[in-house]
Amino acid sequence: MNYYYGAIVYAHVVSAVISVGPLFLLLPLIRRLRTAKAEAEDIYLAFIRIIIRLVMHSGHVLVVTGILLILFGPWPWNTSWVILTIGVMLLSGFFLATGFSSVLKRFHEPSIDREAVVNKLQRTAWIYIGLLMVMLWLMVQKPAVW
Predict the structure, then answer these.
(1) Which of 10, 52, 69, 129 registers the highest number of CB atoms within 10 A of its CB?
(2) Long-range contacts for 63-71 (Cβ within 8 Å, ≥24 apart)?
(3) What is the pLDDT, as a whole number, of residue 135?
(4) pLDDT tens by residue, 76-92
(5) How far apart (Å, rounded) are the C-alpha atoms in residues 145 and 79?
């Protein structure tokens, strides 16, 4: 059992890295998107969509391995850091599903304020990174909040 638990921890950590790491690639892509010509814009947007999809799917692995760690590990479901992590996870999942897609769809709308859309995309990326950092802190520190 201990061997399997270690493998689940490893898969959980790797999926956490894949969930967070690529988001930092968004920042230089968004910076380049600000000055991109029309031909390059679609390429940058395609890379951003690929990154979001990668983050989303690694998040699925993160959730499954997290559930397994709680089921087989020493922490009960009612531990404060587990409850808070689940809450932040649900918030970040909703935010990922709605935040990025709504901003990315606006790029091809006629008469958009391109600078405002790029600013919103950058703000969305930082908010999502912030949510994941809070989740990461909860999982690493395991604070007893109550």
Answers:
(1) 52
(2) 63/89, 65/8, 65/9, 65/11, 65/12, 65/15, 66/12, 66/139, 68/8, 69/5, 69/8, 69/9, 69/12
(3) 92
(4) 999 999 999 999 999 98
(5) 9
The structure tokens listed for 136 are: 């990461």
Q: Give 94-138 as a 3 state SS string.
A: HHHHHHHHHHHHHHHCCCCCHHHHHHHHHHHHHHHHHHHHHHHHH
Residue type at position 119 = N
pTM for the predicted model, two decimal places: 0.84
| 3-state SS assignment for residue 58 | helix
Q: Which residue has the tokens 């000055």?
A: 35
Residue 142: CB atoms within 10 Å? 13
